[in-house]
Structure formats: C-alpha cells, structure tokens
C-alpha cells in the first residue's frame, strides 16, 4: 500500500499493529508511531519508522490514522488533532466504547470514520479484526481492510456489535491464555516439566483451532471424535463441567461486556 499510516498511541495494541505491518513488509518510512515517551519506541526508529510525540505532525503527514490510545485519552487526542483531520483522511479508532458518532463530534472536518477491533495477536499476523463504519466509501473500507488483513483475518460487522467484538476477540486473547496457563499447570501436576507442558498445551490449542478453521465443524463434532465410552476424555470433561467450566467462561464474557456497556 502506498498510503502512509500513523498510529497514534504506541502502547501494547499500537505496537502490535505496527509489528504486524512491518513483518508483512510494510515500508517502515511510511509508518509513524506516536507516544509521549518516545524512548520506548527506539526499536522502531532503529528500523526507520518515524517516531514522534507530536500527534498533529503525525496526522498531517499521513493518509490513514489509527487511533490506539487509552479510552480515557481519546476525546482529548481527537480534539488535539481535529484541525489536521481533513476530509481526505481516513480515521480508524481501535479504542473500545467510543462510538463513530462520538468520534465525529470531536472533529471539525468529516473524514472517513471507521472503528476496528484487532487483538494483540496482530503482532504475529494472527489477529481477528472486526471493522465497522457509517460513512466510509467502499475504497476507504478496502484500504483499511487491507491493513488488518495483513495482521490476520477481518470481519465487517454492525457498529452496535463493536463492544461485543472487543470482549470476544480482544479480551478473548486473555481468556484463552488463562486456559492455556491452566493446562500447563495441570500438565506439571501430572508429571511434565514446565517447558514440555507448555509445548504440548500450546500446540494442542493451536491444533484444535485449526481443526475448526479448516473443517468448519462445530466444536462438539470434533469433541465426539476423542470421547470414547467410559474413557478418560469424557471423564475429564464431565469433571470440568461439574465444576462450572463452561458456565464460568460464559459468565466472564457477559460480565466483561457489562463492564464496557
């Protein structure tokens, strides 16, 4: 893509997006990252990425602006860059719980506005990104989608579902990692060293995901293939369910959404 990209907010998510772009051969000199403490971005400046603490300069010199600041900062940042966000710019917010209407109200001009919700797996090009918009043209949507396609997979959704996308796709990374951690701890308890348990658990989770992605089956269809009558798999699953495994996960997802809403 010839267009220049600015990432306003070089925190964990902003850096994950940058890492994904760079690993997908995006031209470093066409990428700008901002952060107040730019010393934390030295590894990017070493790669010829433009690093600055000046948000207005970053917006002025870029075509697509990805807002990746903390939710409590977004309103102030949008007002700060408002004079630079001309109608020709594309603004993409990856900030949760801040609607397109709210973004528009903070800007003087009316650029193309989109919301996107990737996750930190963007840094290894394995994110799932949900994208929503109200006024963007097909070409602008295509440009933004191509950015996030480089970081994994993308899905277009209606904006009212963005909070749910945040919980399932972004918070979901933490849920899955906590599950993996528990598998590792269980593996250690039954005899493996931590390194071996980690390898088995992480590859097992990866394999389970690939089964669903490539075969398109419901999870229960794949579960049935490894649960034999009176076997150890069904015994373990039933014990987990008796202790609230599925219900705890579902309640956690719903509670996270209640926190955002």
Automatic annotation (TrEMBL):
Reaction(s) this enzyme catalyzes, per UniProt: L-proline + NADP(+) = (S)-1-pyrroline-5-carboxylate + NADPH + 2 H(+); L-proline + NAD(+) = (S)-1-pyrroline-5-carboxylate + NADH + 2 H(+)
Main localisation: cytoplasm
Domain Pyrroline-5-carboxylate reductase catalytic N-terminal: from-to ranges: 4-95
This enzyme's EC code(s): 1.5.1.2
Cellular compartments per GO CC: cytoplasm
BP-aspect Gene Ontology terms: L-proline biosynthetic process
Recorded metabolic or biological pathway in which this protein acts: Amino-acid biosynthesis; L-proline biosynthesis; L-proline from L-glutamate 5-semialdehyde: step 1/1
Keyword rRNA-binding: no
Gene Ontology MF terms: pyrroline-5-carboxylate reductase activity
Compartments in which it is found: Cytoplasm
Domain Pyrroline-5-carboxylate reductase dimerisation: residue ranges: 159-259
Matches recorded under Pfam families: F420_oxidored (PF03807), P5CR_dimer (PF14748)
Superkingdom to which the source organism belongs: Bacteria
Keywords: Amino-acid biosynthesis, Cytoplasm, NADP, Oxidoreductase, Proline biosynthesis
Keyword Kinase recorded: no
Protein name stated in the entry: Pyrroline-5-carboxylate reductase
């Amino acid at each position: 893509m010839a267009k220049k990209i600015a990432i306003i907010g070089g925190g964990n998510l902003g850096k994950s997006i940058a890492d994904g772009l760079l690993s997908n051969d995006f031209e470093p000199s066409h990428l700008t990252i901002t952060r107040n403490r730019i010393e934390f971005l030295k590894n990017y400046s070493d790669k010829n990425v433009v690093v600055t603490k000046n948000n207005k300069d970053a917006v002025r010199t870029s075509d697509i602006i990805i807002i990746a600041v903390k939710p409590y900062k977004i309103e102030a940042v949008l007002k700060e860059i408002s004079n630079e966000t001309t109608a020709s710019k594309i603004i993409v917010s990856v900030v949760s719980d801040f609607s397109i209407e709210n973004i528009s109200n903070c800007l003087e001009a009316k650029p193309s506005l989109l919301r996107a919700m990737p996750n930190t797996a963007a840094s290894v090009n394995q994110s799932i990104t949900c994208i929503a918009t109200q006024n963007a043209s097909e070409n602008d949507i295509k440009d933004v989608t191509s950015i996030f396609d480089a970081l994994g997979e993308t899905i277009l959704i209606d904006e009212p579902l963005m909070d749910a996308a945040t919980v399932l796709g972004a918070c979901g990374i933490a849920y899955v990692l906590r599950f993996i951690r528990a598998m590792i701890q269980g593996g250690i308890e039954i005899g493996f060293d931590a390194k071996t348990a980690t390898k088995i658990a992480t590859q097992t989770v990866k394999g389970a995901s690939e089964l669903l992605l490539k075969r398109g089956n419901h999870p229960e269809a794949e579960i049935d293939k490894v649960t034999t009558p009176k076997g150890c798999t069904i015994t373990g699953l039933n014990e987990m369910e008796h202790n609230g495994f599925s219900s705890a996960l579902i309640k956690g997802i719903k509670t996270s959404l209640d926190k955002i809403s």
